[in-house]
C-alpha cells in the first residue's frame, strides 16, 4: 500500500510527534474523557475508506470518534518503538503491512490480541490470525500486465530480453523485489545474497523504478511499461479505472501480503482502539473494502458476490503455492538490504 498520497514530510511528522510526545510527557492524556481513539494510517483513499466503511457505519453509532495520525508507514513504525517505554503513548492503533508489524512486535510495544479483547478475531481465517495484530486486507504478489503487449507466466519472465525497458517496479516495495529475484532464480527467501546478482541483471535490462503504485499505474496506462509485479488488489483497481491490464499468479508461487492493524501496549485510549480493531473485522466493512480496494476479506463471515470473488480472491490451487516471506530474516537484514538497493541497484 505504498503511495505518494500516503506520505507526510519528515519535518511535519517531527513537529506533530514532538507536540504529541510533549503532551504525553506532561501527563495530559490524549483525548481525555472522550470516547475516541488515535489511529495512525496512510492518507488518501485508504483513510477515506476507513472513515466511510469503518468509522461512520460501525463506530459512530457507538459514540466513538477517531482522530487520524497521517504519516508513512516508516515513521508510524518508528513512533511505536520509540514511545514504547512511555507511561502513555500518543497513538492507539497503527495500520501497517505484515512485515512491519512483525518488526514492532519484537520490541514489545504491542498489546496481545485475543477473542476476549477483539471478539471478531474468532471469524478470521486461521492462516491469517496473528497474536499482536488483526489482518484487515489480504492479497498476493501477481504479475500485472497489458495483454496486448505481454504474456508473462513467471517471475523469471520479467528478465526476458523481449521486455527490455517495459518492466516497472515500485521503489518502496524493494524488499519484495528481492523476493521476486530470489524466486525467479530458484533461490531461498531466507538469503537474498544470490538475488542481488539477478537484480543487477534486471538493472541492465532497463527495469524502470517508480516512486509509488500510482506512478506505475500511470505508466501502464500510457504504455511506458507493459508489466509490473504488485498485489492483485491493485490489478482490480486499475482494471476498474479502465487501465488495460490483467493479472496472473506466477508459476514460482504466490507471495502473500496482509495489511494489518495493531494497538500500542501503552495506548492512551485502549478501550476504543480495541473497538476500532474489532470494527475492521466486521463483515460489512470487509465487504466494502473488497468492493472498493480489490483486496480479499480476511474473515470467514464476509460473503462477497461470486463475480467479485473471482477477481479478488485466490483459488485453492493458487493458495497451495503460497511462498511466505521470512520475516525474521527481513527484520535482521532490513537496513543492509535497503542500503545495497540504494547504493548498488538504484545508483
Automatic annotation (TrEMBL):
Please name the source species.
Answer: Microvirga flocculans
Q: Which UniProt keywords apply?
A: Periplasm, Signal
Cross-referenced Gene3D superfamilies, in alphabetical order? Periplasmic binding protein-like II
SUPFAM superfamilies cross-referenced by the UniProt entry: Periplasmic binding protein-like II
Any GO BP annotation? thiamine transport
Alphabetical GO CC annotations of the entry are: outer membrane-bounded periplasmic space
Q: Which GO-annotated molecular functions does the record name?
A: thiamine binding; thiamine pyrophosphate binding
Task: Supply the PANTHER family for this chain.
Answer: ABC TRANSPORTER SUBSTRATE-BINDING PROTEIN, THIAMINE-BINDING PERIPLASMIC PROTEIN-RELATED
Q: Which domain of life is it from?
A: Bacteria
Q: What is this protein called?
A: Putative spermidine/putrescine transport system substrate-binding protein
